[in-house]
Amino acid sequence: MKKKWLVLGTIIGVVILLVATIAVIRFRKPTAISPLGETPTQKAQLLTWEDPAGFKFSYPDGIKINPHEEDTANYAHLELTASEHSGGILIWMKDTNYKDLEDWTKKDPSASSGQVFDSELGGKPAKKVAYVSPQKLVVAAIDVDVLVLVEVSLDEEGYWQEVSDQMLSSFEFIPLEGEPTSAAPGSGQGGGGVIEEEEEIVE
Questions:
Q1: Cα gap 143→182, rounded to integer Å
Q2: What is the distance of C-alpha 167 from the center of its chain?
Q3: Measured distance CA(155)–CA(100) in Å, rounded
Q4: Is residue 68 part of a domain?
Q5: What is the rounded radius of gyration, in angstroms, for the C-alpha atoms of the chain?
Q6: Smallest Cα–Cα separation from 157: which of 35, 41, 34?
Q7: Which domain holds residue 53?
Q8: pLDDT in tens for each of the 203 residues of the chain?
Protein backbone atom coordinates (compact mmCIF):
# COMPACT_ATOMS: atom_id res chain seq x y z
CA MET A 1 0.00 0.00 0.00
CA LYS A 2 2.82 2.34 0.95
CA LYS A 3 4.57 1.49 -2.35
CA LYS A 4 1.40 2.30 -4.32
CA TRP A 5 1.12 5.75 -2.74
CA LEU A 6 4.82 6.36 -3.42
CA VAL A 7 4.41 5.57 -7.13
CA LEU A 8 1.26 7.69 -7.34
CA GLY A 9 2.97 10.60 -5.61
CA THR A 10 5.91 10.38 -8.02
CA ILE A 11 3.58 10.43 -11.04
CA ILE A 12 1.67 13.45 -9.68
CA GLY A 13 4.94 15.26 -9.01
CA VAL A 14 6.18 14.64 -12.57
CA VAL A 15 2.87 15.86 -14.04
CA ILE A 16 2.97 19.04 -11.94
CA LEU A 17 6.57 19.67 -13.02
CA LEU A 18 5.67 19.22 -16.71
CA VAL A 19 2.66 21.54 -16.44
CA ALA A 20 4.75 24.21 -14.70
CA THR A 21 7.49 23.94 -17.34
CA ILE A 22 4.99 24.29 -20.21
CA ALA A 23 3.37 27.29 -18.52
CA VAL A 24 6.71 29.04 -18.07
CA ILE A 25 7.71 28.44 -21.70
CA ARG A 26 4.32 29.49 -23.04
CA PHE A 27 3.91 32.70 -21.10
CA ARG A 28 7.49 33.84 -20.89
CA LYS A 29 8.07 37.16 -22.68
CA PRO A 30 10.33 36.72 -25.71
CA THR A 31 13.73 38.38 -25.65
CA ALA A 32 13.83 41.47 -27.82
CA ILE A 33 16.04 40.85 -30.85
CA SER A 34 16.88 43.59 -33.32
CA PRO A 35 15.58 42.71 -36.80
CA LEU A 36 18.27 41.76 -39.32
CA GLY A 37 20.91 41.99 -36.61
CA GLU A 38 20.68 45.78 -36.31
CA THR A 39 23.08 47.38 -33.88
CA PRO A 40 22.35 50.31 -31.51
CA THR A 41 24.17 52.76 -33.79
CA GLN A 42 22.16 51.62 -36.83
CA LYS A 43 18.89 52.17 -34.97
CA ALA A 44 19.88 55.58 -33.58
CA GLN A 45 18.57 58.81 -35.03
CA LEU A 46 21.10 60.49 -37.30
CA LEU A 47 22.28 64.07 -36.90
CA THR A 48 24.45 66.14 -39.25
CA TRP A 49 27.48 68.20 -38.30
CA GLU A 50 28.33 70.97 -40.78
CA ASP A 51 31.68 72.58 -40.08
CA PRO A 52 32.69 76.11 -41.17
CA ALA A 53 36.04 74.69 -42.31
CA GLY A 54 34.23 73.13 -45.27
CA PHE A 55 32.91 69.64 -44.56
CA LYS A 56 29.95 67.79 -43.10
CA PHE A 57 29.07 64.27 -41.93
CA SER A 58 26.32 62.26 -40.26
CA TYR A 59 26.60 60.64 -36.84
CA PRO A 60 24.27 58.82 -34.41
CA ASP A 61 22.39 60.77 -31.76
CA GLY A 62 23.96 60.48 -28.30
CA ILE A 63 27.45 61.49 -29.35
CA LYS A 64 28.99 64.67 -27.94
CA ILE A 65 31.10 66.84 -30.27
CA ASN A 66 33.70 69.24 -28.88
CA PRO A 67 34.86 71.69 -31.62
CA HIS A 68 37.85 72.86 -29.53
CA GLU A 69 37.34 76.52 -30.32
CA GLU A 70 40.46 77.31 -28.31
CA ASP A 71 42.56 75.69 -31.06
CA THR A 72 43.49 78.53 -33.40
CA ALA A 73 46.36 76.68 -35.09
CA ASN A 74 44.17 74.25 -37.07
CA TYR A 75 41.24 74.84 -39.41
CA ALA A 76 39.24 72.13 -37.65
CA HIS A 77 39.73 70.13 -34.46
CA LEU A 78 36.69 68.05 -33.55
CA GLU A 79 36.49 65.47 -30.79
CA LEU A 80 33.61 62.95 -30.79
CA THR A 81 32.93 61.10 -27.53
CA ALA A 82 30.15 59.05 -25.92
CA SER A 83 29.73 58.76 -22.16
CA GLU A 84 29.00 55.02 -22.22
CA HIS A 85 31.85 54.03 -24.54
CA SER A 86 35.62 54.28 -24.31
CA GLY A 87 37.53 55.53 -27.31
CA GLY A 88 36.36 58.23 -29.69
CA ILE A 89 37.06 60.07 -32.93
CA LEU A 90 39.24 63.09 -33.71
CA ILE A 91 38.93 65.11 -36.93
CA TRP A 92 41.70 67.48 -37.96
CA MET A 93 42.18 69.92 -40.83
CA LYS A 94 45.63 71.46 -40.88
CA ASP A 95 48.15 72.99 -43.28
CA THR A 96 50.54 70.50 -44.81
CA ASN A 97 53.78 70.48 -46.78
CA TYR A 98 53.26 66.94 -48.06
CA LYS A 99 53.07 66.80 -51.86
CA ASP A 100 50.49 64.01 -51.83
CA LEU A 101 49.28 61.06 -49.75
CA GLU A 102 52.14 58.84 -50.84
CA ASP A 103 54.50 61.48 -49.50
CA TRP A 104 52.52 61.57 -46.24
CA THR A 105 52.62 57.78 -45.75
CA LYS A 106 56.39 57.74 -46.30
CA LYS A 107 57.39 60.77 -44.23
CA ASP A 108 54.85 60.93 -41.40
CA PRO A 109 56.17 58.78 -38.51
CA SER A 110 52.69 57.75 -37.38
CA ALA A 111 51.61 56.70 -40.88
CA SER A 112 54.68 54.56 -41.50
CA SER A 113 54.11 52.55 -38.30
CA GLY A 114 50.75 51.12 -39.39
CA GLN A 115 49.30 49.04 -42.23
CA VAL A 116 48.28 51.31 -45.12
CA PHE A 117 45.29 50.78 -47.46
CA ASP A 118 43.87 52.83 -50.31
CA SER A 119 40.57 54.44 -49.37
CA GLU A 120 38.29 57.42 -50.07
CA LEU A 121 37.02 60.38 -48.07
CA GLY A 122 34.32 62.71 -49.36
CA GLY A 123 34.94 61.62 -52.96
CA LYS A 124 38.68 62.27 -52.69
CA PRO A 125 41.46 59.66 -52.72
CA ALA A 126 42.48 58.78 -49.18
CA LYS A 127 44.72 56.45 -47.21
CA LYS A 128 43.50 54.33 -44.31
CA VAL A 129 46.11 53.31 -41.75
CA ALA A 130 45.36 50.50 -39.28
CA TYR A 131 47.25 50.17 -35.99
CA VAL A 132 47.28 47.11 -33.75
CA SER A 133 48.47 48.49 -30.41
CA PRO A 134 46.60 50.52 -29.47
CA GLN A 135 43.81 49.64 -31.87
CA LYS A 136 43.25 52.69 -34.02
CA LEU A 137 42.29 53.70 -37.56
CA VAL A 138 43.42 56.87 -39.29
CA VAL A 139 41.95 58.06 -42.59
CA ALA A 140 43.89 60.81 -44.38
CA ALA A 141 43.05 62.94 -47.40
CA ILE A 142 44.49 66.13 -48.88
CA ASP A 143 42.08 68.89 -49.88
CA VAL A 144 44.26 71.19 -52.03
CA ASP A 145 47.03 72.06 -49.50
CA VAL A 146 45.13 71.02 -46.37
CA LEU A 147 45.63 67.66 -44.65
CA VAL A 148 42.41 66.10 -43.37
CA LEU A 149 42.78 63.41 -40.71
CA VAL A 150 40.08 61.25 -39.12
CA GLU A 151 41.50 59.34 -36.15
CA VAL A 152 39.34 56.56 -34.67
CA SER A 153 40.30 55.07 -31.29
CA LEU A 154 38.55 51.69 -31.30
CA ASP A 155 36.81 50.06 -28.34
CA GLU A 156 36.28 46.35 -27.63
CA GLU A 157 32.53 46.52 -28.26
CA GLY A 158 33.02 47.83 -31.81
CA TYR A 159 30.89 50.92 -31.17
CA TRP A 160 33.35 53.42 -32.65
CA GLN A 161 33.98 51.20 -35.67
CA GLU A 162 30.27 51.45 -36.51
CA VAL A 163 30.16 55.19 -35.84
CA SER A 164 33.21 55.80 -38.03
CA ASP A 165 31.75 53.68 -40.84
CA GLN A 166 28.60 55.85 -40.80
CA MET A 167 30.57 59.07 -40.54
CA LEU A 168 33.10 58.25 -43.27
CA SER A 169 30.46 57.03 -45.72
CA SER A 170 28.50 60.30 -45.29
CA PHE A 171 31.51 62.64 -45.22
CA GLU A 172 31.33 65.50 -47.76
CA PHE A 173 33.62 68.41 -48.54
CA ILE A 174 31.71 71.69 -48.91
CA PRO A 175 33.09 74.35 -51.30
CA LEU A 176 33.62 77.59 -49.44
CA GLU A 177 32.11 80.84 -50.70
CA GLY A 178 33.60 81.90 -54.03
CA GLU A 179 35.19 78.51 -54.69
CA PRO A 180 33.88 76.23 -57.46
CA THR A 181 35.27 73.13 -55.73
CA SER A 182 36.38 72.28 -52.21
CA ALA A 183 39.66 73.95 -51.38
CA ALA A 184 41.74 75.04 -48.47
CA PRO A 185 39.66 76.68 -45.75
CA GLY A 186 41.92 79.75 -45.86
CA SER A 187 41.70 81.84 -42.75
CA GLY A 188 38.57 80.16 -41.36
CA GLN A 189 39.19 78.42 -38.06
CA GLY A 190 37.61 75.25 -36.77
CA GLY A 191 34.98 75.26 -34.09
CA GLY A 192 31.33 76.07 -34.04
CA GLY A 193 29.39 74.13 -36.59
CA VAL A 194 25.73 73.60 -37.20
CA ILE A 195 24.00 70.49 -35.97
CA GLU A 196 20.94 69.63 -37.99
CA GLU A 197 18.56 66.78 -37.40
CA GLU A 198 18.11 64.53 -40.42
CA GLU A 199 14.62 63.50 -41.37
CA GLU A 200 15.63 59.96 -42.15
CA ILE A 201 15.88 57.56 -39.21
CA VAL A 202 17.69 54.29 -39.74
CA GLU A 203 15.53 51.49 -38.40
A1: 7
A2: 6
A3: 31
A4: yes
A5: 27
A6: 41
A7: 45-198
A8: 555 555 555 666 555 665 555 544 454 433 333 344 455 556 779 999 999 999 999 999 999 999 999 999 999 999 999 999 999 999 999 999 898 999 999 888 878 788 999 999 999 999 999 998 889 999 999 988 899 999 999 998 899 999 999 999 999 999 877 665 544 444 444 445 545 554 444 44
> Is residue 30 a part of any domain in this protein?
no
On whether residue 89 sits in a domain, the answer given is yes
Q: How many domains are there within the chain?
A: 1
Beta bridge partners of 148: 93, 141
CATH number assigned to the domain comprising residue 124? 3.40.1000.10
The span from the CA of 173 to the CA of 24, in Å, is 57
Phi, psi of 15 (to 5 degrees): -65, -45
Q: Is the dihedral of CA 31, 36, 40, 43 positive or negative?
A: negative
